Amino acid sequence: MSTVLAGLEKMTGGDAPAPPPISYSLSTPAFPAPQTSPGRALTMQIALPEPTAQVAYETQKVLVARSPNQLKLLEEGQWADSVPRLVQAKMVDSLENADFADVAKAIDGFTPDIQLLLEIRSFEIVVGEPPRARSVIYAKWFAADGKIAAQRSFDAKAPVMVVDGPVGAAALNEAFKTIARGIVVWARTAM
Fold first, then answer.
1. 2 domain-assigned
2. What pLDDT digit, counting tens, does each position of 144-184 carry?
3. pLDDT at residue 71, rounded to an integer
């Protein structure tokens, strides 16, 4: 009887649903407590709009570059959100963790003193000798008058032992933390 019911379930599309994919997130670097009183950079209001990126990066999947001009989705697991939104949220967290007092996503509806615009230029596992995670983020500070106050590119790599979801996501997380730390240190000096 159970085989008849199982056959009927398959015929009518009644298979058990697939389990949800594993989700990966990015973490933020740790920052020591400041030794001096906050300067202007730590007290100015900073808006961080959603980063721009090529359409290929606007995905929840981990990307793999098997050749310089080819990106492929890694089927195993996914990011907790699209890459630009995840980078935005974790950069806000990074700046807050570094004691910047007033940081928010640009959609949070406040008038900032300055905006941090990010462009994700690379965020993938590069298959090569050796395989590695690579992240490139270009950052621009826009002053309240709309002029570029400072700009700089941040590039980080991390080793990948196996090209799969958990290992690739962990390596991309390490590359991101290096970039997030670099942007925060730059923000303290550039502002």
1. no
2. 888 999 999 999 999 999 888 899 999 999 999 999 999 99
3. 93
Residue 24 lies in a domain: no
Q: How far apart are CA 30 and CA 165, in angstroms?
A: 24
Tokens representing 168 are 């690739």
Number of domains in the chain: 1
Q: Is 9 within 8 Å of 3 (Cβ atoms)?
A: no
169/92 Cα distance (integer angstroms): 20
Residue 131 lies in a domain: yes
Of the candidates 171, 166, 28, which has an alpha carbon nearest to the alpha carbon of residue 89?
28
Tell me which residue range forms the domain holding 141.
39-190
Using CB atoms within 10 Å of the CB of residue 46, give its burial: 0 to 12 exposed, 13 to 18 middle, 19+ buried: buried
Q: How far apart are CA 105 and CA 81, in angstroms?
A: 15
How many beta carbons lie within 10 A of that of residue 169, not counting itself? 22
At 114, give phi and psi (nearest 5°): -155, 150
Q: What is the CATH number of the domain that holds 65?
A: 3.40.50.10610
Residue 15 resides in a domain: no
